Amino acid sequence: MSYHYKLSSFLFLFILFILNIADLCAQGIHIDFGNTRPRIRYLQIVGNAPGEDGQIIGTRIEREYCAKSAGKAMYFAIDNEKLYQRPESTFDIIYVEYFDADEREIKLVYDAVDDPNKVSDTVIKTTGSSNWKSAVFNLEDSYFSDRQKYNADFRLECADTMIINVVRVAPVDYYIDFGETNDEFLIAQKMVQTGDSNTEIVVINGEECISTIEESQYLYCDVNDDEIMEGDFPEFFISVEYFDSSSQLPMRLQYDSESEPYKDMAWIQGKGWGSFKVYTWEVTDGYMAGRQNDGSDFRLNFQQPGPAVNRIMLGLWDYGPSAVQNSTAAVADFKLDQNYPNPFNPKTTIRYHLAHQSHVRLQIYNLKGELIRTLVENKQQAGIYSQLWDGLDDSGVPTSSGLYVYRLDSDGFSQSKKMIKLK
Fold first, then answer.
1. Which residues fall within 8 angstroms of residue 50, CB to CB, at 6 or more apart?
2. 223-227, 288-292, 404-408: least confidently modelled range
3. Which of 97, 99, 94, 134 is nearest to 110 (CA)?
4. How far is it, in rounded angstroms, from Cα 339 to Cα 321?
5. Which segment of 330-339, 399-408, 412-421 scores lowest on mean pLDDT?
6. Peptide bond preceding 305: is omega within 30 degrees of 0, i.e. cis?
7. Same fold, 3-170 and 174-316
8. Sign of CA dihedral 286, 288, 291, 295
9. In this predicted model, which residue has the larger pLDDT, 100 or 64?
10. Is the pLDDT of residue 230 over 70?
11. What's the longest Cα–Cα distance across the chain?
């Protein structure tokens, strides 16, 4: 192969990668620098001017296209036209997949309610293991209104260069971390530990993971319906962080959809990199009503026992029904939806369906059965309605964190659901 041919091929791939960075985006507020598929733009790199502290360049690690910082930081912004600028704090998770090349620290600096450049308490301390690793930042006071340099919402800082492959932002992400001991926010759960889902805990590169054993080939998971939702809430992304040990071990997702409880997503094939990697499936017709084995909502199919999974993350494509308007469209029946987000802090939205014109009462109670707040008390036309609860009681006093019950009464129809307010 000639020198000029090699050079032209390299330039073509490099230009393609730079174009991908300029236009890279993903549903689920998720950016994958190694993914070339065009998607809706929710998360973007900003501040990539040569010579500035936010400059990045393209690089390649283990055949994976990545972003490498050429300055002090990588700046990220959530597209406000696709989502919105939130007036008050929200609980968020930021997930970062990075290449652990040298010993260093990586810090997250994010736009918080009282400080546009707040440093997260979590700091990534890298060890130089030359493996792909990941970290999750829990943010309880994020603001994300473009107040950082370059109109960014958050940035990753490192005294030395850093290499990033995946960055994800999710509001109140629901996940299972098999090496996590604090389960306060781990609202998804593993199900079924016998039969075709017999598993064991294994330790790989210092990380506790779960692996199928014997003749097992499935790992079943469930989303806690009391705390999140049950039934038709279709648009999810499900990410799996797994140890990519062999190119001979494929994996696929089978989820509870609107039409069938075991709907298949495409197989993904391992590449045998010997490091942790993340793959994300996008679900557009999720039902999640516990129709799989033992009431599970989705399962991972490994075709054969052996793959090790460290973390499973389930998120939503945006920040909920902010774009859902009250509609007078025909509705077949009365229905009360699960609030979103749930858990929440400090606000949440409750959506309900009215089959015909009726008197509506929507109220919130504490676990003692005491009335906390009346949100709706009037006559409404048939249609779909969204009602915001700001976390205040009828006296305008903020309620404490904990479990609450909201109830809809309308012309003989009555339904209640639970929701959780976080600190």
1. none
2. 223-227
3. 94
4. 10
5. 330-339
6. no
7. yes
8. positive
9. 100
10. no
11. 80
